Amino acid sequence: QLQLVESGGGLVQPGGSLRLSCAAPGFTLEYYAIGWFRQAPGKEYERVSCVSVDGTTDYADSVKGRFTISRDNAKNTVYLQINNVNPEDTAVYHCAFHWSCAGSMESFSNWGQGTRVTVSS
Question: What angle do CA 60, 5, 112 make, to 5 degrees?
Answer without folding.
Answer: 65
